[in-house]
Amino acid sequence: MTGAAMPIKALEYAYQLALAGLPVFPCKNDKAPACPHGFKDATRNPLQVEALWAQHPGTLIGVATGRAGYEGHGRCIDVLDIDLHKPAAEEWHEKHCTNIPGTRTHRTRSGGLHCLFWHREGMRNSAGRIAPGIDVRAEGGYIIWWPATGLEVVDKASPTLWPAWLVEQATPAPPPKADLAKLDRGIEKADRYVQAAIRSAARQVATAGEGTRNQTLNAETFALARFIPDGHLTAGEIASVMATAGLAAGLPAGEVEKTIASALRARVGG
Known about the structure:
Number of strands: 9
Order of helices and strands: HEHEEHEEEEEEHHHHHH
Shape: elongated
């Protein structure tokens, strides 16, 4: 699997994977992407595979997970990555292997397993959340397609849906809902339009997904600050409500305080 012949073999295999609707891109032998933008360069178009490998030769095939490159066609997969050489991962696998449904499974170069599932909306990358050595490759991630190097396909079944018990282990607990009573305190005298605006902003923040929480807190606080010049709300009232929403979303208190202060300064100065 070394030498000049391997990129040609990888190219041929990658073409077949793209033909099957999977997003592929070249990777180096150390598993790092060979192309400049990593999985973002992945293509599902078989006609683009040869050009991609010609520009960025790679001995391994990366397959993007999640919805990368999805435009209404092709297949979206997630992967449960089990590093069996790690004791905690091996222990977890021994305990749960009989509950993992039959699904496409590959042997990895380190002797572990890649269990493939159809992509579940909201499933994201995680490392060790389930157990040390048990990772998830989903939105924003990729795997190496080890069968292209001759490694074993342990289970040739088609990918299946994530089982509910595994989804529960793989995803973080939802953030606590904002206390509506706390949100109402201090804005009872505001007119109905203003109250509706601040409640809507708080809900947007409290339910924001991971990776968007800080941005949402900043944007919604900035938007509410438009009510300050006319005296409908004070900066303190906005800060109090948005802090409650930010903490409900799971943001650290220090980050919440800095983001709110920055948004208010950007709108009203000071």
